[in-house]
Write a structure and sequence with these properties.
This protein is α/β, with parallel strands linked by helices and 291 residues long. The chain has nine helices and nine strands.
Amino acid sequence: MEKYYSDIEKAFAEDEAYYEQAVLDAAKMILDRPTVKMIFVTGGSCAGKTPTTERLAHYLAEHGRKTELISLDDFYRNPEDAIYNEDGTPDYECPESLDLELLHKCFSALCDGEVAYMPTFDFKKKRRNDQYKAMSLEDEELCIVEGLHALNPEVCGGYIPAEKTFKIYLHTHTEEYEEPRLLRRIVRDYYKRGTTAEETIDMWDNVEEGTRKYIEPYKDSADVVINTYIAYERYVMRNDAIQMLSEVPAESPSRPIADKLLAMITPLPSLPKCKVSDTSFMREFLTKRIG
């Protein structure tokens, strides 16, 4: 901890250096493969798909390569076409929760230099917007696709020539504690989606079951695997996480997991999140640069 008290911004940057270098190395690999048109980025919930996609686009732009960014979330089916679990609840974890026919049509068009008409999903209305956005790729332009099923063959498989694809798998690995992504999601969703810690913990088993079934099996197909765990993250999320976890009712089925997380983070010192750079990877999982 001593390094954080001498020059905290420098220490935070050093903690992120491995991740930053890994993304930069991935960008260089892509630039060395002139046939690549579609880059697919996946990982479990809160592995950092969105900030990594943005970071990758930034590095590619520095080398003169323009990019279009696509979220697989925009291909979710409308409610009347939804896939359901056996208990009658909508299944948002399986690949079929996406409109694969439309997805194949759009991605094939982009790879062939044609215009694709891309959907936009409105999560407040829980359905697609009526207006579709026209998209096409210039000769040197790349497309980055991020989402839970980005490495699934149903999404990036045989209808796109393999030489036109590049695949990135994100994970969070540390010997310090079991699963960093849950703490990230508790803090992020509390602030950005209005979800309580109890609600996040309650759905976590289903989220992780989807990760095991639909995401992890394709890790070995990735061209690059990047560990997105940042050494300081527990310390800057600590105070917010304690507040959120303490709100879980004592009688809640989620309480044992909340207590386990509290036992892990409460003894830790806290570090000010205001010292995290506005351009940091970790901004995805924090509030704005305050406090």
